[in-house]
Amino acid sequence: MRLTRRGRLVVLLAALAIVLCAGFFLGSVAVGTDEAGQAPATEIVMVEPGQSLWSIASELTDGGDVRTTMREIERLNALDSVALSAGQKLRVPVSND
Question: What's phi and psi for 46, nearest 5 deg?
Fold first, then answer.
């Protein structure tokens, strides 16, 4: 049996649809446990005029990667961007001093 150009296209699209559906259903499985997780130790800081997320993260980071601390602050506060405003309260990881 020989497939025409149109037949090959139909087979390709059908295979692609099957793979996408399988990926969607297998990728949307939630993973969880019955045990409660440990909340990270945090503290609240108020953003001062002129402060940036980088400056706040660099104050908390002792010789570590400032970008990692920035990402953690973004995650803890569900920030969409790194833009901050004076007076904003941020939850930050507790520094290990």
Answer: -100, 135
